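REQUEST FORM: STRUCTURE PREDICTION
Request ID: SP-0412
Submitted by: Lab K.M.
Chain count: 1
Length (residues): 66
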Amino acid sequence: MIKRHQRANPQSNRGGGIIEKEAYIDISNVQLIDPQSGKPTRIKYQVEGDGTKSRIATGSGQSLEK
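STATUS: Completed
RESULT:
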């Protein structure tokens, strides 16, 4: 939910004030769940010797791969 300030418009019979409405959340604000603690965590990428990348939870150090 976001809050928007709305100006009153007497022609359309709309009052002013602060309104709450639903909005999309940006993908950059979403975190993955740590498999060990169950809490949101940041991730880091670990590059193996053969060139494959894997995602690692920064809090616990556990792999986030399926």
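NOTES: Strands lie at 2-6, 17-21, 32-33, 40-41, 43-47, 53-57.
Reviewed by: T.R.
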